[in-house]
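To assess whether the prediction recovers the assembly geometry, we first specified each molecular entity separately, as shown.
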Amino acid sequence: MPETPSHPRSPAADPRPPVRAGEPLRVTIWNEYLHEVESDVVRAVYPDGIHMALKRALEERLPALVRTATLREPDHGLAQDVLDTTDVLLWWGHKAHGEVRDDVAERVHHAVLAGMGLVVLHSGHYSKPFTRLMGTHASLTWREADEKERLWNLQPGHPMLEGVPAFVELPQEEMYGERFDVPDPDELLMISWFQGGEVFRSLMTWRRGHGRVVYFRPGHETYPTYHDPNVQRIVANAAAYAAARLRRDDAASPNVAAHEPVPNPGKDPIL
Amino acid sequence: MPETPSHPRSPAADPRPPVRAGEPLRVTIWNEYLHEVESDVVRAVYPDGIHMALKRALEERLPALVRTATLREPDHGLAQDVLDTTDVLLWWGHKAHGEVRDDVAERVHHAVLAGMGLVVLHSGHYSKPFTRLMGTHASLTWREADEKERLWNLQPGHPMLEGVPAFVELPQEEMYGERFDVPDPDELLMISWFQGGEVFRSLMTWRRGHGRVVYFRPGHETYPTYHDPNVQRIVANAAAYAAARLRRDDAASPNVAAHEPVPNPGKDPIL
Amino acid sequence: MPETPSHPRSPAADPRPPVRAGEPLRVTIWNEYLHEVESDVVRAVYPDGIHMALKRALEERLPALVRTATLREPDHGLAQDVLDTTDVLLWWGHKAHGEVRDDVAERVHHAVLAGMGLVVLHSGHYSKPFTRLMGTHASLTWREADEKERLWNLQPGHPMLEGVPAFVELPQEEMYGERFDVPDPDELLMISWFQGGEVFRSLMTWRRGHGRVVYFRPGHETYPTYHDPNVQRIVANAAAYAAARLRRDDAASPNVAAHEPVPNPGKDPIL
Amino acid sequence: MPETPSHPRSPAADPRPPVRAGEPLRVTIWNEYLHEVESDVVRAVYPDGIHMALKRALEERLPALVRTATLREPDHGLAQDVLDTTDVLLWWGHKAHGEVRDDVAERVHHAVLAGMGLVVLHSGHYSKPFTRLMGTHASLTWREADEKERLWNLQPGHPMLEGVPAFVELPQEEMYGERFDVPDPDELLMISWFQGGEVFRSLMTWRRGHGRVVYFRPGHETYPTYHDPNVQRIVANAAAYAAARLRRDDAASPNVAAHEPVPNPGKDPIL
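The predicted structure of the complete assembly is given in tokenized form:
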């Protein structure tokens, strides 16, 4: 009969309260914010930037404290203390993925592994944080032809699709087509039909570390997609769903003592 | 009624034959090959290196052409043409993950996305190719105490477990314990029980790009694990299962023409 | 250019409010309730039945209205109106699975597909509702030997594991061992280590229809498992997590009109 | 230090050879075979039945011994010894699912759990074997309007899509639309675009017990779908992929002895 080492039956429950216990959600919206500055067409759709349109949409729909951050700010607006106080980060980028500093991309990547939620929007599929979290190219096919997109709701009972009808129709959007080079998702929630003949997995989630990553396809800068009520609802639901419930850095691999008798408990490993 | 563009009903079948059609499997075994050189204890177990023990095991069990590569060779033995002619790569590393050049790690990473199989062994969980493919820390708990490991077979009908009994027992192994910081696998095939009280997901697969990644836990350098017939069988099955069936670089996102009529087929996108 | 049929861009949002909007959770605990009546040993552990121990535990931990139902009641206590007003059903059964009427089992099965949550406990793995939802035998290996069980927490950031430490230790439990014949779960959250050498996937979830099914392993009737604070916490978290967010019967396959022009919209199908 | 019970380090490898070792695949094609008898339109497309068209397609493409079975035969052509000698069963049914005897449906269900592959075609989504294996309604939306279907290939490196181009176009098919009420698949391999505006997950796999289940959407009886070379290729690949690698009935839950010392190895359980 083994002699059981004397230790408590279970470790103490983690004393840290859950991140969001009754508090408003702390959201940070990151936007590249170049198209809106450089193009009259885009500025006409989003006069103060995609981030501000999303900020208003979230504030209307969630008990949330919403901040914004953009590429041209110092540290791209994403200093460590910003991430440390962010429950969920939204990411919109397109033409300047390469300008995002590697150390900031890594900071975001590691914040997600430590529990921060990340909602990646549209052309953010090629962003550094997303591709590093996926481990794939995240390539796809695309076309801009003012065509119709219809997003089908595969899981009406899922929290991210609360209040969302059987499908959402957008009269004009950029097309993204399969094959989308990402890992199989933990959850596939919407599939898009495009007028020009393609399909796309448009709402997906992946757990990475302690964090939840969401990808939501629509949102090309020349169309008023983020003014659509259903799109706003899905983005708000996604922010609430992905928000951190735990923040803990588990990068290290600790050498641990045995819970039960082992042959050689004090052995010196060869390193 | 829409006017259908005139194009073939389906594209031509890909004319490239499947990679492995009736040919022997082309396996490359990568080993760090430092412990065996530096430590008498390890050399006693694997006199000519872990890679050579694995090479013999695979050659006995598979119609395979097996090459080896090690850290100290130029390009770590992994020049582009080696990867281009490798159907599946095995990876064993431990103490010198940081010495693997970033460009070689990326070369391996991209070869997997293009279809090459990758079987990561034991302490290779912390290697650059594996962590880049997973997008996580791949951290875990560990202990070296000469303890027993028993690996339970969850899917006896899976090709990787063909001929493998209900469990495999290893009298002495290093312990790896949960939480193992990896994405949920596509397939969970074995779970380890350890004498000291931990459990571990020990045989898992993930598709990344066109490639298949396998992780198989056992194989600490001070124990004769790779001489065990069941372990050899699983490694051989894993090599055959993960081997490339397609080699194609899909890093790019092409702009494509519509298959059906769209409102504005010649539109100039804002870039 | 296709002529678009005139219909709204998206259907109206489902006007039904989410099931649980700010209301207490409506929980029904089903217990076979035979062992506690027939055996002094079991009654000493659960004097008024496992269902009453669980009821008290849930009421302490959740804003919930908790009812109970047992095998010997008319309709096993599960009349249609009970299910219709149940957000999540807990199920404990062991020796009399065969006595559960087929029509009641089907009623439970269909309630889950329509959105009701189901938390299956311990020997409930062999119950009619669970095996019908899984489509498999749900077989396993077992042993009653007063041995230790240690459940490892694989996802501390998951809502079901909020407040739960890295592992939970139960000094005496019945052993359940792999291979557990169930479909691969959507989420694998805990794995058990047993003193006698086995492992088991002990906390898993599957979506079926609009409903969420949870299986949680511990809870043999001769041990005080449901008095353990961590076990109570996990059961309470599971009830909250699995609770219905939507109730809708989607058994039928409607013939639907096209959203876009099709060649033969009024065609009479051969039936 | 625990005293280890004296038993072999691992059980003997299963002596039974893998089912298919070098032998031709044993395929049985089940067809309801009513439409072809009753309707001139259908008979014009499949003069000797869908099963015979599929039989010829498989024989051309695989080293396979192909048998057929139909509803009106005794036991629907599916006596136990037929299933016992079938590596993979194809299933086409539509209007007479209710006529399939419950005991035969259960025989098929249990054969799959014991390892037999099952490829369910088109309207077979509502068949007894499929719905029992899924545990869901398997409902969907549908329309027969002679519309175009384009199936997108999500995993060109998967064995079931070997030789299949980026998409497959069928000029006329019945439409099946989401939401398809099935469990999340283990693998999602093709998604259909329909001319009328819907999408559908058209090629999926699920492991159930030791068996592999495949669902492949196209194949309405009034269209020449099974004469399409790409469709034939996918069906043939699916048959090879799903074929049994193990045949073993694991319906029972054995009481097992401990591998390691336990407190009370001879305990009499309360039953």
